[in-house]
Design a protein that fits this description.
Number of domains of chain A: 2
Largest interface: A-C, 61 and 57 residues
Number of strands of chain A: 5
CATH architecture of the largest domain in chain B: 2-Layer Sandwich
Strand content of chain B: 25-35%
Number of strands of chain B: 14
Oligomer: heterotrimer
CATH class of the largest domain in chain B: Alpha Beta
CATH topology of the largest domain in chain B: Uridine Diphospho-n-acetylenolpyruvylglucosamine Reductase, domain 3
Number of helices of chain B: 11
CATH topology of the largest domain in chain A: Ubiquitin-like (UB roll)
Number of domains of chain B: 3
Shape of chain B: globular
Radius of gyration of chain A: 16 Å
Chains: A alpha+beta, B alpha+beta, C alpha+beta
Order of helices and strands of chain A: EEHEEEHHHHH
Largest sheet of chain A: 5 strands, mixed
Order of helices and strands of chain B: EHEHEEEHHHHHHEEEEEEEEEHHH
CATH architecture of the largest domain in chain A: Roll
Strand order of the largest sheet of chain A: 2-1-5-3-4
């Protein structure tokens, strides 16, 4: 058996430390080792984006990264984006605009959208469609996902303006 | 999909990488973003007993825009290229091409080095680098050497890089004139049905130089010198375009796959090239 | 007693039928707190996974598991030999055939389950799989159903008698050793006669390619046998959890009360999760053998290559008409490729599903349909991918035949549809192939659609485009795709609809709590449709308690009443009806309680939104909340305490949603790339429960239609290798490939459904596929195109242009 790796991660603000086989994929670290089951497994070949998390400020498909590669990284999953007492505007907007159906793609979708809006706080519909093209949804046809992200962007921009 | 067992290394410098390569020979592979290699390992189509992650090796993540040339480190990602205003300023074709690779998440991880080094005929950067007459720097036990992109690709997944060498960066002479990267694909995330990289200069109404390379239309990228030559000295009238397309078709050798049969690919290659040339010309 | 709010406000407070209530499911999903089967984690849980066949047809001469068993963490490797003593090496399919659970001497399709490796974790399982040595002896591969019917190669030796004769199958006589059934409907000779003597006959052969529902979550389960109590709990991605419980009981011998099936949150189904798969059986057996919970989750390749393909119908049609375009007859023959086992998920009496809805929305006096099912070396399945049983195939067939006839008649296809629609006053309408359409107003819907899109203007623009193209001014053609569909959903009346003998009723059980809130449980299971939201809306309107005070629960067979599950758009038509009927039972008892409390006769009170009022004296009332409390806590003579009801609803008929779709597409003839410029969808699903959810269903169904029409397929090479096993090649559109849709509606309530609802989840897929396809075909009509097969991916579109000489 290959040598186990000593891996340290900061996941949703919490330090985690463990020994793992090098071949342990990050998605399994999150889901099975750390019981963070928001990110899902959809395709396993980096096409669908259900496993998307944010790693050191980048949107990453965690099914295509070994935990060992992420050693030392800061990771945010849907669980770290907002909870019952502090919903993120994107979480609110997806509920408000019917941006989800079965919910399976939703954690990856919202996680990716947080990064998209960080990079481009006021995206056009075309920019949203292009910027979200790494996340597949089988249920919604994307129209209400686009609408949700637009609504969240407006909400976040308004809040930012009010704060200034 | 679970890969077979392997040992993982994350050396801090190139000497560490090279000594691991020397130690494990064919059993070792270097990895940058891993987005080509890891899916192959998961499907157990790539057997990698020793995996060397380059991410901690310093000096591979820089983009330097010099007076005559651009240097891009092997670990520069597609996202880095897209976001680098200075680079886009002098070589906009890089951004245009990078935006057509995979999807946002993959572009954060996918690197220039990985894209050009692994020899996958579906990758976009190799053809682009041939069009731009880039040179690849590789380093091995015997030191560093430079290989022109146009001489790098031998067959699918076979390149001029030796197994114990690591590709550290690419050097691109500052491109001149108009540019276009035109790609037809079935959907986001797909490889090209056909793609063309074109860089053209003109003087008045006449073409002074033209460089053309095609992607995913052979088992290597195809730099079509003849296609470029067919344009030089012309005003890019229809006859010149047709001659360039004909020359390019003489150089490519597509195979049938789920994207379609050979006749379709040849036809689309011609259409895509024609469009790329026209767009590049309009920007020259 | 005075109200401080208006009646209108009281209606709003209920969030009942007709309002776009926000979904109650979304809080957990948006926060990553859904609970899908792969999230189930039990102490000591083992992982099982399959060794699969690389060959499409081969004999297995030996399986050596010794090396695999040496892998640390591998506990067991099950083969057919291990299952045989239990009688579980084969299992019944939903279609009356049987299927190997693990390869019993041979394999019939690539990816077939050969051995099941059980290990302590998924890593050991994966390593074990690599080390199971299987010796195969390759056999000739048959992937084409027409060749299969002529071939000497016997795919299913188990279905040939020792003397070489071919015994009858589950659906009657078989013509050949690779033939499964012939099923027909309608009048053969009269139809042939009408067509032979008609003014005009159009004929076409079309292939509706094989594809796959491909929900984002694959299939999987966790089986946990509690040997102490003798109870088996099975979590899984089941669209029909109660049916799964019964099937598990029948094949395992465990008594049904000792089996608890739980469908947790399901990440999309679209038909993929209706069937019973070898993974379920092997997990159960492995759990019984090891005494530990066993999890099995498909990977994406397993999913695409082995569980639940859809379509694969080779259809030949003849349609006859008068010179004026009045259709007189329709003939359809189908060669249906069912793969290695007949595992289609159809009601027992309908081996080709409801393909006999193929007369569509038209008043066709004479028709005949014949379907031949055939075995080939492909994966089994034949599920209804986002449609009622084979309705996509039927609607595609008729909507293509109409277009082909329009070409033959040199008529506008919109007009041809209009003059043949079943008229409003003809409903209920009995079609030539037997179904009684409950209601419809096709002309109104069609006129509204054509007017909204400015159909005449589009045709004028298209004519100009053709001229421009011919003049060399453009290389893009314009296609106008039309489709008018009638679905048949809500299976169904128990008198003719059952699966494996299980009647296709559905159910709802309601408990009102003393403080005026409630829980309702149903026999269905949501996979994203939002049942917890919409069924509460139905109940809110029926029983006058706010939807926000009603919990909807599905999917746990220990608590929910028996039902046949969610597929074929049956939830609203059947379980939705049961919900309304159970609600009415609640209301009937509430009426008696209210009358007692108000000291009047039962007939002197009437229901009004959220209360019973004394007729003629609206100031005298008891709210449902008050009534609920009294039901539990006040001794009322002659009425037993409590407020509960259950309804098992056996629908008197199917429901028949319909719609009118128009697609405008530009096509680059040089590259074959289509661009959807506009898509208009008018749906009539009867009474609308939640417009927001309806719209979402339409967007999603249209997107799946786009995928199927424009590129999504399960393709095989001649050796039976599946060429489309990953999402690189199996087309699932991203946001970038999908347009914005315009939605619209008319409302023609179902006359027999308690609330007039008809179901909508599948309409957009059923109507969308022919609409996208017709748009592609229409673009080429001016150049002589009659029909080309889907999927219209770039190269096939290019091929059409090329064959029509459009590349110069």
């Amino acid at each position: 058996m290959s040598k186990k790796m000593h891996i340290k991660l900061k996941v949703n603000g919490k330090d985690e430390e463990f020994l793992a086989e090098p071949r342990e994929l990050l998605i399994y670290t999150l889901r099975e080792r750390l019981n963070i089951t928001g990110p899902h497994i959809g395709c396993e070949t980096s096409h669908c984006g259900a496993c998307t998390v944010t790693i050191n400020g980048k949107s990453v498909k965690s099914c295509t990264m070994f935990a060992a590669q992420a050693d030392g990284a800061e990771i945010t999953t849907i669980e770290g984006i907002g909870g019952p007492d502090d919903l993120h505007p994107l979480q609110e907007a997806f509920k408000e605009h019917h941006g989800l159906q079965c919910g399976y793609c939703t954690p990856g979708m919202i996680t990716r959208a947080t990064k998209l809006l960080e990079e481009n706080p006021n995206p056009s519909e075309e920019e949203i469609r292009f910027g979200m093209a790494g996340n597949i949804c089988r249920c919604t046809g994307y129209q209400n996902i686009v609408k949700s992200i637009q609504a969240a962007a407006a909400e976040m921009n308004a809040a930012k303006e009010a704060a200034e | 999909m679970i890969p077979a067992e392997f040992d993982y290394y994350r050396p801090k410098d190139m000497a560490g990488v090279l000594s691991l390569l020397e130690e494990h020979g064919d059993d070792a592979r270097v990895m940058a973003g891993g987005h080509s290699l890891i899916p192959m390992m998961k499907l157990r189509m790539a057997d990698v007993p020793h995996l060397i992650d380059l991410q901690d090796v310093g000096g591979l993540s820089d983009i330097e825009v010099g007076p005559d040339a651009i240097k891009i480190g092997a670990l520069v990602t597609q996202a880095d290229i897209i976001d680098h205003a200075g680079l886009t300023n002098v070589a906009p074709i890089l951004r245009e091409a990078a935006l057509q690779i995979a999807d946002p998440q993959v572009r954060y991880m996918g690197t220039v080095g990985g894209n050009v080094a692994n020899g996958d005929p579906g990758n976009d950067m190799p053809g682009l680098m041939q069009c731009l007459d880039a040179a690849f720097t590789v380093v091995g036990a015997d030191g560093e050497r430079t290989i022109p992109a146009r001489e790098f690709y031998e067959a699918a997944y076979m390149t001029a890089r030796e197994d114990d060498e690591v590709l550290t960066g690419v050097t691109i002479p500052l491109p001149k004139g108009g540019y276009a990267y035109e790609k037809q694909k079935r959907k986001i995330g797909d490889y090209a049905t056909a793609a063309a990289a074109v860089q053209i200069t003109k003087d008045g109404g006449s073409c002074v130089s033209a460089s053309i390379a095609m992607t995913n239309l052979s088992d290597t990228p195809i730099y079509s010198e003849a296609a470029g030559a067919a344009l030089v000295g012309t005003s890019l009238d229809d006859a010149a375009l047709s001659a360039a397309v004909a020359a390019m078709l003489g150089d490519i050798d597509p195979t049938e796959d789920n994207r379609g049969p050979v006749a379709f690919k040849n036809h689309v290659a011609g259409v895509i090239l024609r469009r790329a040339i026209e767009r590049a010309w309009s920007r020259a | 007693m005075k109200d401080d709010i208006t009646r209108e406000e009281r209606v709003d407070n209920l969030k009942g039928m007709g309002c776009s209530r926000k979904r109650v499911e979304d809080a957990r999903f948006t926060q990553g707190k859904g609970n899908y089967v792969d999230d189930v984690k039990l102490d000591g849980m083992l992982f099982g996974d399959f060794v699969r066949s690389p060959y499409a047809h081969a004999r297995i001469t030996n399986i050596d598991t010794a090396a695999a068993l040496e892998v640390p963490g591998v506990l067991a490797v099950l083969t057919a030999a291990d299952l045989e003593p239990l009688g579980l090496h084969w299992m019944p399919t939903l279609a009356g055939d049987k299927q190997m659970v693990l390869a019993d001497g041979k394999v019939l399709f690539q990816g077939q389950e050969v051995a099941f490796v059980v290990a302590e974790d998924r890593y050991a399982a994966a390593d074990g799989i690599e080390l199971v040595e299987v010796e195969y002896e390759e056999l000739p591969v048959v992937v084409n159903p027409f060749e299969a019917l002529k071939s000497d190669v016997v795919l299913r030796e188990d279905l040939v008698a020792e003397d070489g004769s071919i015994p009858d199958g589950a659906h009657g006589p078989r013509k050949h050793h690779n033939h499964i059934f012939t099923w027909d409907a309608g009048d053969k000779e009269p139809t042939e006669e009408v067509i032979a003597n008609a003014d005009v006959v159009a004929e076409e052969t079309m292939y509706y390619h094989r594809t796959h529902p491909c929900p984002l979550e694959t299939c999987g389960c966790v089986a946990s046998m509690d040997k102490v109590n003798g109870k088996l709990t099975l979590w899984g991605t089941f669209q029909a959890p109660h049916a799964i419980r019964t099937i598990v009981s029948l094949i395992s011998g465990l008594e049904e009360h000792n089996i608890r099936v739980i469908s947790p949150d399901i990440g999309g189904g679209f038909g993929n999760k209706v069937g019973a798969y070898p993974g379920y059986v092997c997990s159960v057996v492995a759990s019984i053998v090891t005494g530990k919970p066993v999890k099995w989750i498909e990977d994406r390749m397993d999913n695409l290559m082995t569980t639940a393909f859809a379509r694969d119908y080779h259809m030949t049609g003849k349609i006859s008409a008068t010179k004026e375009g009045k259709i007189t007859g329709l003939h359809c023959h189908v060669t249906a490729d069912h793969g290695g086992f007949d595992a289609c998920a159809d009601p027992t009496k309908f081996p080709a599903g409801f393909m006999n809805i193929c007369t569509g929305s038209y008043d066709i006096p004479t028709a005949y349909l014949e379907v031949d099912g055939v075995y080939t070396n492909k994966a089994p399945g034949g599920v209804s991918y986002r449609c009622s049983f084979r309705v996509t195939e039927a609607v595609y067939f008729i909507e293509r035949m109409i277009e082909v006839l329009a070409i033959k008649l040199n008529m506008d296809a919109a007009e041809l549809r209009r003059i043949n629609f079943i008229k409003k006053e003809q409903f209920p309408y009995t079609a030539a192939l037997g179904w009684e359409y409950d209601s419809g107003d096709y002309h109104t819907a069609w006129d509204k659609a054509l007017k909204t899109v400015d159909y005449d203007g589009l045709r004028a623009e298209q004519a100009q485009r053709v001229e421009d193209f011919k003049a060399g001014k453009t290389r893009k053609l314009m296609g106008i795709g039309l489709s008018f569909f009638t679905e048949i959903v809500g299976a169904g009346p128990v008198k003719n609809c059952d699966i494996l003998g299980l009647g296709m009723f559905d159910s709802c059980e309601i408990r009102i709590h003393p403080t005026g809130s409630a829980i309702a449980r149903l026999g269905t299971i949501s996979q994203g449709q939002g049942h917890a939201t919409t069924f509460a809306q139905i109940l809110a309107s029926e029983i006058g308690l706010p939807a926000d005070s009603i919990t909807i629960e599905e999917g746990d067979t220990d608590t929910a009443p028996y039902g046949l599950g969610t597929y074929g758009s049956r939830s609203t038509p059947v379980a939705g009806a049961a919900t309304a009927m159970a609600g009415r039972k609640i209301r009937a008892k509430a009426q008696m309680i209210a009358a007692y409390l108000l000291e009047v006769h039962d007939n002197d009170v009437e229901f009004d939104v959220d209360r019973f009022v004394v007729k003629g004296a609206p100031e005298k009332f008891k709210t449902m909340k008050e009534i609920a409390f009294a039901a539990y806590n006040q001794a009322i003579p002659g009425i037993e305490p409590g407020l509960e009801a259950v309804s098992y609803y056996d629908p008197p008929n199917m429901t028949y949603p319909f719609g009118a779709y128009v697609c405008v597409m530009d096509i680059d003839v040089d590259t074959g790339v289509p661009e959807i410029r506009r898509f208009y969808a008018l749906d009539d699903c009867g009474t609308r429960i939640n417009p927001m959810i309806i719209e979402g269903q339409v967007h999603g169904g249209l997107t799946e239609a786009l995928a199927v029409a424009l590129g999504q397929e399960i393709a095989y090479d001649d050796m039976g290798n599946c060429k489309t096993g990953t999402l690189m090649d199996f087309f699932l559109p991203t946001a970038w490939e999908v347009p914005n849709y315009e939605t619209d509606f008319t409302v023609t309530p179902s006359p027999h459904h308690p609330i007039g609802a008809k179901g909508v989840g599948e309409s957009p897929h059923v109507g969308g596929v022919p609409c996208f396809s017709n748009a592609v075909q229409d673009a080429f009509r001016p150049f002589g195109n009659t029909h080309t097969n889907m999927p219209h991916d770039h190269w096939r579109i290019w091929k059409t242009a090329n064959e029509l000489g459009l590349h110069g």
